[in-house]
Structures are given as C-alpha cells and as structure tokens.
UniProtKB/TrEMBL annotation:
Family according to the record: Belongs to the MIX23 family.
GO cellular component entries: mitochondrial intermembrane space
Organism: Formicarius rufipectus
Stated name of the protein: Protein MIX23
Transmembrane stretches, start-end: none
Superkingdom classification of source: Eukaryota
Keywords attached to this entry: Coiled coil
Coiled coil found in the keyword field: yes
Gene name in the database record: Ccdc58
Length: 142
C-alpha cells in the first residue's frame, strides 16, 4: 500500500478506499489502545495518563487531518475530470465511450463524496471514546 502522502490513487476507487481503510486503523483500534495505555486506578502510578492521552490526541488529529485532506483532494481531482468530460461531451454528443467514461467518473465522484460522511462518523466515534477515557487526564487545546 502506498504511503499516505500527496500522491494518492484517486483514479482507482478501490485503491482510494484501501488507503482510507489502512489510515483508519488508529480509529478502529482506539478502544484497545485506551484500554492498554490508560491505567485503571490500581495501576495509576506506573503510567502517565496525561501524556498518553496527549500523544493519542495528537495522533488522532494528525490522522483525521491527513484523511480529510486526501478525500478532499481526490474529490477535487475527480470533479475536474468530470468537468472536462462534460465539456468534451458537449462537443461530441454521439460519442458513447465518452458518455460511459463520464458516468463512471460521476459515480466515482459520488462515492468519494460519501467517504466524507463516513469520515465524519468515524471521527465522531473516535472522539467520543477518547473523551470518555481521557477527559480527566488531558484537556485538548481549543
């Protein structure tokens, strides 16, 4: 899998989804992460929960920001392709292959836009769990 950088596979939706799936690992494992790093009352002296929560907060913020940037970048790229194909379609209305390509790109654009909604749900869930476990140990900056 490609590294989460600016060079994202926006052309292939399956690759795009796989990248997001890999990048959402931190959110998928947040409960486990908190259970193993935030101590119960009997182990409170062995670990600094404030520092642990701060590091987890920074990791979550970084992951959420990167994923949102990638999703919005791919939406912008695909929107540009759709716009170009629409303009070409106006000039060549009888081109069936062009129409097929336009429909394919429009579908991909809608799927990418729906990933923004998925991202919102994933982020909300992670912040809810984070706040339940870390609110007494760490107060994030506003």
């Amino acid at each position: 899998m490609a590294a989460p950088s600016g060079a994202t596979g926006c052309e292939d939706f399956a690759e795009f989804q796989e990248l997001l799936r890999v990048m959402r690992t931190i959110d998928d494992r947040i409960v486990h992460e908190l259970n193993t790093t935030i101590p119960t009352a009997s182990f409170v002296g062995k670990v600094d929960p404030g520092q642990t929560c701060k590091e987890l907060y920074e990791s979550l913020m970084d992951a959420h920001t990167k994923r949102e940037r990638i999703i919005k970048n791919c939406i912008a790229q695909t929107s540009s392709v759709v716009k170009t194909l629409r303009e070409e379609r106006e000039k060549a209305q009888d081109d069936v292959a062009l129409l097929k390509q336009l429909r394919k790109e429009q579908t991909k654009l809608k799927l990418m836009q729906s990933e923004l909604n998925v991202e919102e749900v994933v982020n909300d869930r992670s912040w809810k769990v984070f706040n339940e476990r870390c609110r007494i140990h760490y107060k994030p900056p506003k």
